[in-house]
Design brief:
Strand content: over 45%
CATH class: Mainly Beta
Number of strands: 21
Number of domains: 1
Helix content: under 10%
CATH architecture: Beta Barrel
Number of helices: 3
Strand order of the largest sheet: 2-3-4-5-6-7-8-9-10-13-14-15-18-19-20-21
CATH topology: Porin
């Protein structure tokens, strides 16, 4: 549920432990976990360069977490075992809990971002993030992370400072990984590139509902003249494969211009979020805006998006809420022998249409435009570890006149089977 889990909040079973023979005092432990998501999607509509249908392993991941004494913990994890480019590490870090003011981690970290992104893809209500999170979700990098709560849990925050992960450079042709929540990929490395991110959430006790949360986030990244970024993109609600079996950019519905190396000085994203949970009812909404600061005569650009969603568990179970990280988790307390059933609806709008008046080479005629989409879903939580999802997405794109594209719509029907441990 959290991107970073202090060991005390882990609920998995210890599979491996170490102890001294004389006193049997634990000096370390290892908790093994994994995730498998298998998808099938069928696309229709008047956008012909989206795959008609496809089945794919969306994610196959493993991780090991554990402690190394009273205050130290660690995590080692893989990005996606199905990645054709070989092993790529996911968030892997060493954590320290010896300070009263905050928990710290150092390593390959995820930058804190919006509520939908920070709650994670494992227990997301829908198969894919909403369009604005796909486009503006922050990346990961090598750096330091801190989180804490204050005012007896009424306020919590996450902070990170990092150097963007240069392993992202190999993913520029794989939108499946980009949509995992990575905002953009670095094309090479440079000591001048750095970033910071922060998120703060207040949880006032209003006496109505179980949880009311209001928050804001910021993500800033500085780029040198030898750095480039990929275009920001969205999908028609699900990822598909081309007829050749390869994930390609044609499965992207709209995108920004694609900056060349040296086009940008920095990128800044602001976000605002709200959530309300009351028994089986969960609602959340977010607004995100990204600014690109062009270098020299290159134009400054801005993009934005927003979404709102609501879900209701027909069998009455609530969704979990982690107060420390201010994130929404899975449906919990499943006691019905037929599992828990949830209905969900989401509306999202993403504006990636801003075009430059100068700079950006020949890349301003890609798929710049705006996307509107509605997603309706039904989720079956068989157990805490087995979930089936089904959804229908209607997405419509309007493209800038310079693209030479007419407006398009895509209708997507998708199902997912998920197993986690």
């Amino acid at each position: 549920m959290r991107k970073f889990l202090k060991l005390s909040s882990l609920s998995t079973v210890t599979l491996l432990g170490f102890a001294t023979a004389a006193h049997a005092v634990p000096i370390g432990s290892a908790y093994v976990g994994g995730l498998l998501q298998v998808d099938y999607a069928n696309f229709s509509g008047d956008k012909t360069d989206v795959a008609v249908s496809s089945g794919d392993i969306r994610r196959a991941k493993l991780w090991i977490k554990g402690d190394l004494g009273d205050d130290w913990s660690y995590q080692i994890s893989t990005r996606n075992l199905t990645n054709t480019e070989g092993f790529i590490p996911d968030a892997s870090w060493i954590g320290y809990d010896g300070f009263d003011v905050a928990w710290l981690a150092v390593g390959l970290i995820d930058a804190p971002g919006s509520l939908g992104y920070w709650s994670g893809y494992q227990y997301n209500t829908f198969m894919e993030y909403a369009g604005p999170i796909q486009a503006f979700g922050p990346p990961r990098g090598i750096g330091i992370y801190a989180d804490a709560e204050a005012m007896e849990g009424l306020f919590s925050y996450q902070l990170a400072a990092y150097v963007p992960d240069i392993t992202e450079a190999g993913l520029s042709s794989n939108p499946c990984e980009i949509i995992d929540g990575v905002k953009y990929n670095t094309l090479g490395s440079d000591s001048d590139q750095w970033g910071f991110a922060g998120r703060a959430v207040a949880k006032p006790q209003l006496g109505v509902g179980d949880v009311t949360a209001i928050g804001a986030s910021i993500h800033y990244e500085s780029l040198s003249e030898t750095q480039g970024v990929n275009a920001l993109v969205t999908t028609p609600g699900a990822l598909g494969r081309s007829t050749t079996g390869t994930n390609i950019r044609n499965n992207i519905l709209v995108s920004t211009v694609a900056p060349e190396i040296g086009d940008l000085k920095n990128s800044t994203t602001f976000g605002f979020e709200g959530a309300f949970l009351w028994g089986p009812l969960t609602t959340q909404a977010e607004f995100l805006r990204t600014y690109w600061d062009g270098r020299g005569s290159v134009s400054d650009l801005s993009f934005w998006g927003a979404y709102g969603q609501v879900s209701y568990v027909l069998t009455g179970e609530p969704r979990a809420y982690d107060n420390y990280s201010a994130t929404i988790g899975p449906v919990e307390y499943i006691t019905n022998p037929f599992g828990a059933w949830e209905l969900a609806l989401r509306y999202a709008f993403t504006d990636l249409s801003d075009n430059p008046s100068s700079g950006y080479g020949e890349n301003n005629d890609d798929k710049t435009g705006k996307q509107w989409d509605w997603t309706g879903g039904i989720n079956w939580y068989v157990t805490d570890n087995v979930i089936f999802r089904g959804e229908y997405v209607y997405a419509r794109a309007t493209y800038n006149n310079s693209t030479g594209r007419s407006d398009k719509n895509v209708k997507t029907m998708a199902i997912r089977g998920q197993v986690s441990f």
